[in-house]
Amino acid sequence: xxxxxxxxxxxxxxxxxxxxxxxxxxxxxxxxxxxxxxxxxxxxxxxxxxxxxxxxxxxxxxxxxxxxxxxxxxxxxxxxxxxxxxxxxxxxxxxxxxxxxxxxxxxxxxxxxxxxxxxxxxxxxxxxxxxxxxxxxxxxxxxxxxxxxxxxxxxxxxxxxxxxxxxxxxxxxxxxxxxxxxxxxxxxxxxxxxxxxxxxxxxxxxxxxxxxxxxxxxxxxxxxxxxxxxxxxxxxxxxxxxxxxxxxxxxxxxxxxxxxxxxxxxxxxxxxxxxxxxxxxxxxxxxxxxxxxxxxxxxxxxxxxxxxxxxxxxxxxxxxxxxxxxxxxxxxxxxxxxxxxxxxxxxxxxxxxxxxxxxxxxxxxxxxxxxxxxxxxxxxxxxxxxxxxxxxxxxxxxxx
Length: 400
Hints:
By secondary structure, this protein is an alpha/beta fold. The protein contains 15 helices and 13 strands. It is about 40% helix and about 20% strand. It comes from Aminipila terrae.
């Protein structure tokens, strides 16, 4: 199993604390594996098998537990008296009104509850109301490039070769150990994509027109790295001969972001220090999905690496927005408890005009937070332009 160390440490840190641990993320990003890693850890520090109750509600063996009363009763009967119990429920959203069972388990003494879900819908409505202030979320993503390099079994590959694979085939954990060829990987990713589209989007939202849903997915995927509005998506599809309202597009797009196949980055007015509601950007959870959908050419590398940087910043715990500065744009405004860092992303800036264009927005920012230009150029120790650091993207991805 790939050791997801950062996520595992979050579970260890919150062990036996009076909060429900909710692990969210797209299908096949490694949530079940994380539970297995954590259960192994618990056993290594003396927790017995009888103290651990693990249920995967995707497994047909637990089909009778898809009702909250049955789920609660099943777990209740397995609880050990006078010992701490660790309850793991995978894909909990498959159980109707699961929040009632989770809440009832949570209020019991000596019960530590961990749940996973593949849809943000599970964190809305009654769960949030019932468990307000009593749960934390661990937002899980597929592999970072650092993790991918650790997982890739072939020691003969150079870092650059691994990066090209990562760019082309994406970051789902199982992909790293597969035979790296287009047909094998494409088949695997296609299976994940279709499961998400059917189970997590269409079925949950009652969407019957799958072709129209796919058109929306491809429209957004082709616009990665470019500001886009719900109206523009609607206009694009209407111009191709399909009639769809803005409200319907909005509903479908919300369902796609809820399933974690897309992430939305809002615009942020750097000078005015306020968030803007128009022309957001969307990024795919995995570049392999985008390449499968669009058969992207090498000339599209700028959008792909921008997508990778966005996901990496999420991996590092940043809140990520698009920066607006008058008529200029900063690719990413990354903020956390320590402050803000500004990022520009470009495949290459060896051309002087391209370099000047990429530096211009960063130079106009009136504050003194760090400003970084990420490129694929080989630049040795890096370059510094009046306080703006240029860093090789691959080195940055591997720098923990």
